[in-house]
């Protein structure tokens, strides 16, 4: 497989727009998410669960616009308070700032906005998904629900990615370890910063079992520290950081990622 045309220029454009958009994605995470949007070897929709002020939405929509990938489906009730959306400065919603971010980045027409809870959108969902980006409710119940509702629509070769899997939240890391890494429906997998990602490969996922289990063994060590939620302090926090340091989470060149995910 080859990189899409003008790949480097498109990635730079996406990052420059993301860089000035409020939110919590790091540069490594933003560039990696843009790469997955551009290079995933499958057809279908890009679906984002959890938009906040639009940082990831802007990056995804910029890539989608440049490569004719259709609208990004952005699902978020934009309600507050929320433990994963703390920076609202007393406001009750992030929706106005979300819309402003889309307008500033000139990607409003590239985004299908659903100001709703994911379970409400899922009731009528039937479209295939090539990239499923889960960054909503970080509780175990919330992340598990989003996975269960939308992962059945992943197309073969599609990518699922969960944000904050290496931060102090139970949901993303448990779903990644228990439902993805330990399932033969998925193939190659890894971390880009705190983004956990895997490729949906139900036809041949079993041949990646050893690789996934090696990653699962390391990642699963984080679960006891975050189970049940709550802020980590003192020795528990140090233990969490030690366990996290053992999980590989660096970047990857697009050519190498494409080679890993080739069908």
Question: Would you mind describing this structure in some detail?
Answer:
The protein has one domain (7-261): Rossmann fold. It is α/β, with parallel strands linked by helices. 48% of the residues are buried. The chain has a seven-stranded mixed sheet, sandwiched between helices. 43% of the residues lie in helices and 16% in strands.
Write the layout of secondary structure elements.
Blueprint: H1 7-19, H2 27-39, E1 45-49, H3 55-67, E2 72-75, H4 95-104, E3 111-114, H5 118-122, E4 129-134, H6 140-150, E5 154-162, H7 170-181, E6 186-192, E7 195-200, H8 209-220, H9 223-226, H10 234-245, H11 254-261
Parallel strand pairs: 1-2, 1-4, 2-3, 4-5
Antiparallel strand pairs: 5-7, 6-7
Helix pairs in contact: 1-2, 1-3, 2-3, 6-7, 7-8
Would you kindly provide a brief summary of this structure?
With 263 residues, the protein is of the alpha/beta class. The chain contains eleven helices and seven strands. The protein has one domain: Vaccinia Virus protein VP39 (Rossmann fold, 3-Layer(aba) Sandwich).
Q: Do you know the CATH topology? A: Rossmann fold
Question: Runs with pLDDT <50, length 5+?
Answer: none
Helix count, DSSP H or I runs of 4 or more residues: 11
**Overall number of strands:** 7
Overall pLDDT confidence: 95
Note the run of SSEs as H and E.
HHEHEHEHEHEHEEHHHH
How would you name the CATH homologous superfamily? Answer: Vaccinia Virus protein VP39
Which class of secondary structure composition applies to the elements? alpha/beta
CATH architecture, by name, is 3-Layer(aba) Sandwich
Helix content: 40-55%
Integer tally of domains = 1
Shape: globular
